[in-house]
User: Which sequence fits this backbone?
């Protein structure tokens, strides 16, 4: 039995989360996860994996088995992970004789009005990306090997078993979605790119990043107002945001704090940290809203649930709650009431968010299709409808560029083919979260009215869902609890079609 190790596993998780928090919040220069792994080295033995594998009939048993496998692999990879992180954190790129920290480039790109300069910045990152890709290649090789050795399964089969997701069925639905919304998306993107003076056939990811920065809306998204807006809305929903004793709002200015807001559930539910470095702009608000959704989910998880159900399992459940809050920014009533936008601007902005959501969903949909092929070593070429052909791609990098370009209509280049891959097919967790977010929102509207986000009853209801933690109920079970038969893409598709009709 491995149950006697559960308390230590939780302590290990906590220590690792704290290490990441200190590093990303700018309080500790080096990420030293290796040290944390060393401190808990008794947890990472093959014997524990084998023992845990004997008890996978229950959800908790299976989650524990998956945790032992994940931690065993994490321990094997700890040196390369830390090395890659240190390299990335200290890497510089050279642009016209100037040295710029690699991690600042994406912020510079999205704020750069001159297209040539955006391009220069992007091109300058290539040598750093090449080196990071080498780290990734090494890691993935090791991951495939270890999964096979520990579980006897291929990477995708293992994830399908551990996360209980039928990826092929999901990919089929995503393929239909991609073809079904293709024309709407193409028209939107053509118009979006024209608004920044770029022809669709020339559009690059750095152009879309600049477009999505949406400077014209900055006046409504001041950094000084961010917390105030969030507090007002959370209070209306029945959450005393900013005064919860188990939630720490880290708003301190530190030079090395990462610019994007993030939530670190150090101890669920007793210590959840929401980190923010407000800089204003719509994407700052969007990120903060998203992360505050995670925060309330973890902070309202039932403390008496087992560690396995509170903390382990796929993150699709938590991502769905995060999306629910994030996409309040596509609600015109919300925008007028809380962000203070006049009706006309609220309509424009809601449209902007929904178009951006469609772009993001299509990107993640094709990432699922691409990553499945990558992990399966399948180079069969796909046609414009994402159906296999008799031809093959000459490399995974070429496959990446082709598939991402087909789905997003933005010209992707090959160099990110491994850097743009999330471990554990996380892209599928996001996709599933997007499906449930719409379903949950519809239910909230039905139960508490169009202004469900201003109703204290909503908070009460959400708490009855949040209490189940990350894995107490699966996303399919949560769909059933809220009155559906299961997770279904049709609600998301309808939501888009209705909005854009
Ligand atoms: Zn998230």
Assistant:
């Amino acid at each position: 039995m491995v149950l006697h190790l559960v308390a230590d596993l939780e302590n290990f998780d906590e220590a690792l989360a704290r290490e990441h928090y200190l590093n990303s919040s700018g309080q500790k220069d080096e990420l030293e996860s290796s040290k944390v792994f060393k401190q808990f080295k008794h947890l990472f033995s093959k014997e524990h994996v084998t023992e845990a594998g004997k008890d996978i009939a229950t959800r908790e048993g299976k989650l524990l088995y998956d945790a032992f496998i994940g931690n065993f692999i994490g321990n094997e990879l700890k040196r390369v992970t830390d090395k890659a992180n240190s390299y990335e954190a200290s890497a510089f790129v050279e642009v016209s004789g100037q040295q710029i920290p690699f991690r600042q480039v994406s912020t510079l790109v999205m704020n750069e009005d001159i297209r040539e300069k955006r391009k220069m910045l992007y091109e300058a990152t290539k040598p750093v990306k090449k080196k990071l890709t080498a780290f990734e290649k090494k890691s993935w090789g090791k991951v495939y090997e270890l999964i096979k050795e520990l579980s006897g399964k291929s990477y995708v089969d293992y994830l399908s078993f551990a996360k209980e997701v039928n990826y092929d069925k999901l990919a089929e639905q995503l393929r239909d979605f991609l073809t079904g919304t293709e024309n709407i998306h193409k028209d939107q993107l053509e118009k979006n790119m024209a608004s920044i003076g770029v022809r669709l056939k020339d559009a690059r990811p750095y152009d879309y990043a600049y477009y999505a920065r949406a400077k014209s809306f900055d006046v409504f998204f001041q950094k000084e107002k961010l917390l105030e807006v969030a507090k007002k809305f959370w209070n209306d929903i029945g959450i005393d945001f900013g005064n919860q004793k188990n939630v720490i709002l880290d708003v301190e200015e530190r030079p090395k704090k990462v610019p994007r807001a993030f939530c670190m559930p150090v101890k669920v539910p007793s210590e959840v940290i929401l980190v923010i470095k407000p800089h204003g702009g719509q994407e700052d608000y969007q990120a903060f809203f998203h992360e505050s959704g995670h925060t309330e989910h973890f902070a309202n998880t039932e403390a008496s649930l087992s560690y396995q159900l509170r903390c382990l399992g796929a993150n699709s459940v938590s991502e769905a709650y995060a999306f629910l809050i994030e996409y309040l920014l596509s609600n015109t009533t919300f925008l007028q009431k809380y962000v203070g936008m006049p009706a006309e601007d609220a309509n424009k902005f809601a449209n902007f968010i929904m178009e951006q959501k469609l772009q993001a969903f299509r990107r993640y949909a094709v990432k699922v299709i691409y990553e499945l092929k990558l992990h399966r070593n399948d180079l069969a070429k796909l046609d414009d409808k994402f159906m296999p052909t008799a031809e093959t791609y000459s490399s995974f990098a070429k496959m990446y560029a082709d598939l991402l370009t087909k789905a997003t209509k933005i010209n992707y280049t090959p160099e990110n083919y491994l850097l743009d891959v999330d471990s554990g097919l996380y892209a599928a967790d996001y996709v599933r979260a997007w499906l449930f977010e719409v379903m949950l929102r519809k239910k909230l509207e039905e139960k508490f009215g169009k202004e469900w986000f201003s109703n204290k009853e909503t908070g009460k209801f959400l708490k009855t869902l949040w209490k189940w933690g990350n894995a107490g109920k699966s996303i399919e079970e949560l769909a059933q609890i809220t009155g559906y038969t299961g997770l279904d893409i049709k609600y998301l598709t309808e939501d888009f079609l209705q909005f854009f009709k």
Residues 290, 294, 319, 322 surround zinc ion (CB under 6 Å). The chain has a mean pLDDT of 96. The two ends are 57 Å apart (CA to CA).
